Amino acid sequence: MQTELSRKLGIQHAIFGFTPFPAVAAALTRAGGFGVLGAVRYGSRDELARDLDWLDEHTDSLPYGLDVVMPAKKVDGVTEADVEAMIPEGHRAYVRETLEKHGVPELPEGESGGWRITGWMEEVARGQLDVAFEHPVKLLANALGPPPPDVVERAHRHGIPVAALAGSARHAQRHQEAGIDIVVAQGYEAGGHTGEIATMVLTPEVVRAVDPLPVLAAGGIGSGEQIAAALALGAQGAWLGSLWLTTTEARLQSRALTRKLLAAGSGDTVRSRALTGKPARQLRTAWTDAWEADESPGTLPMPLQGLLVAEANARIQRFEVEPLLGTPVGQIVGAMDSERSVQAVVDDLTRGFESALTRLNRTAG
Amino acid sequence: MQTELSRKLGIQHAIFGFTPFPAVAAALTRAGGFGVLGAVRYGSRDELARDLDWLDEHTDSLPYGLDVVMPAKKVDGVTEADVEAMIPEGHRAYVRETLEKHGVPELPEGESGGWRITGWMEEVARGQLDVAFEHPVKLLANALGPPPPDVVERAHRHGIPVAALAGSARHAQRHQEAGIDIVVAQGYEAGGHTGEIATMVLTPEVVRAVDPLPVLAAGGIGSGEQIAAALALGAQGAWLGSLWLTTTEARLQSRALTRKLLAAGSGDTVRSRALTGKPARQLRTAWTDAWEADESPGTLPMPLQGLLVAEANARIQRFEVEPLLGTPVGQIVGAMDSERSVQAVVDDLTRGFESALTRLNRTAG
Predict the structure, then answer these.
(1) Strand pairing partners for A140?
(2) Mean pLDDT of B292-317
(3) Where is the chain membrane-spanning (chains A, B) (predicted)?
(4) Cα–Cα distance for residue pair A100/A77, rounded to 1 Å
(5) Do B360 and A364 touch (CB under 8 A)?
(6) What is the mean pLDDT of residues B137-150?
(7) Residue A112 pLDDT exceeds 80
(8) Chain B residues with beta carbon closer than 8 angstroms to that of A187
(9) How far apart are CA A58 and CA B327, in angstroms?
(10) B283 has which bridge partners?
(11) Where are chain B's structural domains?
């Protein structure tokens, strides 16, 4: 499946894959798609540099991208400690009680609390960009609206197109005004941060709003038939995130989580603020339920909520406490029912696309 | 656009239109689609008989259908008065206060309170069926799950296929077991009663679940591109409801409501229990907001809520009290920005379908 955009980017299939795992990104790129590595979990520049070096060695000079999280609005001089100090004690107590209720052990002495807020701080994201520009990154994506103007300019000087996620036509237009090159229209059914407009409605709306910018459709896409639907809606490609979580190349911290993903139905996700403070679709668990319960103190705004629950999530994952164990994932989790290689997934996507097209052509005339 | 199902039903385009307006149903059928008249607003058999007679005269012997609301579970001997008595006084007071706050006048002496619960009672629905079977109805649809087994049998004896709406694969399978012939998979973004699963995910899931039954996709469909997407997902046609509300053949009670629909964006709807007690997507208004407010007593379960607010809705519509004025409608309301004839809409749908197909074929290979 080739579109104007996929031709321009020199890839074989208009399939873009967002993933926190270098092995998945590399495998997708080698399979003819466009692997995009999520940088948010990297605290240190060295770690990211090492993984990008690895990507360079495993992508046969084919294109890959990097997804950073960089708010366009900069807050000067605010440290992680400043943000920590803004968290009410009642919220900390609720986290402690919920973990105790489910018997979640403490982390062993010296083990890190896992994901911290650091990846969300502009300073860190800028450091990641320095690393990115020293590698042959072919696409820069930004999950939190458009990146700051100077970053867009810097990417363009390197000849790197910039993509940004949007959950509404208005957001997409704002991105366009900020000079970005590709809009990822992310529908309600997607995993992670989402708005309320479903992909079926959002995609054509965004395509119209930012014409002639190319649009990728995200949310609810896990089969070739769904890619055909996305292209029918005017997208120039599909942006998939959830589907890779159960590939053999993915490195989830927990086997129990993989089993939960394989068993989950499309109705087993929830849009919850429990993870970051903004609505993000994820597996529904006893943890997300706890934040909806009558006794819940309510979630805090971003970035406080993420900082509040970071260590708790690390403990839940570390000890595989099943009722609480979750991950951001979209409604297509219902169709993720076997572990396969990225190549097998891509073969399946292209086959499904061809068969949808054949079926559609039979309806014409 | 022709599918196995549309050929079988003898229509030119696989476009099914649900509408409370006989003039819309007739125009869609004449334009080569399949008009389906909603029967819920008919209190008396005579009124329905008169409108079906009119349809017979205005459809050139082409097929049309009837949509009834008949719960499969029967509650014997329960009258409307019994249900009325179950409504708490606090809820009645909240309705009165909200109407007063917005200065909504009383209905003139002798004017009816509009839509009542009657259409929801099995007795009434059965009376409507008697009328339907005296007319050349070519499809019987049921909005509340599968109709009772004897009704399915009776329809089949008349050679009439039965369709039922489903918001999940599990519901769809239950319908299949009840002997229905067509499943309408209605996604989250649809107007009226909806579940949480978006059309992009729901359609292929239902197609797989009830194979080989034909599936119509509903929710988020208002253009030919979206119909192409639905067929790519495996649907044998599209079921559209919202789009007809702003056609010139529609007879909304209020011009102000038409203006609101034309002005609304895709983000201006809400899934609310305010109308019937079950989540139904509709325009977001001061009325739906009132049921979400801190001082709200909360909505009542179906059918109590519908009965509670029936007269209030009639008054709001009668006097066009703009802040409160709403209607069930899907997220595609954002694309409904001009009043056109049903024929012009259908022409647009078929053109959009062809252009989506051309675009898709260019991506193949």
Answers:
(1) A66, A162
(2) 93
(3) none
(4) 36
(5) no
(6) 88
(7) no
(8) 198, 200
(9) 55
(10) B269
(11) 4-363
